[in-house]
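Hello forum,

I keep getting stuck at the same step: I have a sequence, I want structure tokens, and every attempt I make locally crashes halfway through. Rather than fight my setup again tonight, could one of you with a working pipeline run this one for me? It's a single chain of 472 residues.
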Amino acid sequence: EAFLAGPCLADVEIPVNLEIDGGFDSYGSGDGAALGGTTVRISAPELTEDAGFLHELAAFTDLTGIAVQLTPLDADQAANPWAGEPSRRPDIVAFDGWIPDWAEPRALDVGRFVDPETLRSDFGDYLLGFGSSDTAFGGPGNGSVRAVPVNIHPKGLVIYPKAAFDEAGYAVPTTWDELVALSDLIVADGGTPWCFGFESGEADGWPGTDWLESLVLRVGGVEVYDAWSRGEIGFTSPAVMEAGRYADSVISAPGFVRGGPAGISQEHFTVPSQMLARDDTTGEPSPECWFDHQPSFSLNPEWAPNGAEIGTNLDFFVLPPLDRSQPAPMTGGVPVVSALVDRPEVRAFMDFVASPEWGEAWARNPESVFTSPNRRFDASAYGDASDPAVAVRVRLSDLTHSALQSDAFRYDASDAMPDEIGGWTGDFQLGAFWQGMLDWVDGTRTLEQVFADIDAQWTALRAKNASPAPDG
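Reply #2:
Ran it on my machine without issues. Output:
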């Protein structure tokens, strides 16, 4: 029943006192594992370059004897994430915060073989429901769990040069007003507080959407943020407009941004080496900017510029709330896995993913930034917290789970919007939100014009999708 998703045959009688060779403790484990030698095929195009994820798959094989085969996407899918079903369907598919349309109808209900109450206790309805606290992924009243989170990528962090920051005597701000006041102080001290970079190859503009999303969540709270991400209220609605003004107040403030607003669209989004610049004469730290709004992957030592050490040279704080009495909100991405084929070894993998042990090998890997989505994950798996880099990971995990617990964590809003608005389309055209952020900092459109144009494009998109297909 556990492995075949159905009751045992009624006419099969099993003696109550049936002895099992070696006892129950040895059944299905060790060298004689019942599933040892089987294979699961996983398609995880966004995770295959992550060394920590690969270590986690190896840990699963060591534990169970089940081999894991990474299945590459077809050539057209590798070039186009909107392509249809691959020619060879994997057993399990992993994507960042969504399930491809071709896989969605086939995704198994994990709650059939992993206790659903334990799943909800460990992850919470919001993560299991792809950003809905009212229903899980299966639909209203369904109660099914079609995907399990494997990691969290928190966003809305402010990266700063810790060593220089401490030496200057600055204090981490706890409110938005304190952050602006500190930015003013840095200008008065002859520095430039902010760096922004919206350039990202074919995906230019997304760092700008992250910046606005962080502020919409702080200005409007989760209800406004959710309604905005679903398109129930527009960009020109009062709360989103107010958030835009907060965003613009930093971007356009004299002396606040290195290179000025016009250079933002050409600056790459990665943590700038200018933050760790040194005086040519004295060799002392002399940051060309002090703050950079970033996702958590910027805390990866592999990304740190000039060999900087995380926790020593570079650190982070969460973008502060407007009111210190409120929890600090966080946005982020959540990679998930779904099972598409019902076999015992596939169920065993999903059971492992859903356990608090998932991620222990990933967390130990210094080349990855892993934040467990499971509330029972043992924080000691991140390593020795006396190591500054490990302490950063533990603090990031604590803050993320605190935001989840207080219902102040939200999925990236642009990811929930249609690709024509919050992403890029099948022909790799930037969505209206992404392009709008570039035009705003370039000065080719005001923020008010950008927001009005996005609303108009979304209205046109709705009308197009509601219209019947033309004859012929």
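The first helix runs from residue 51 to 64. If your local run keeps crashing, start a new thread with the error log.
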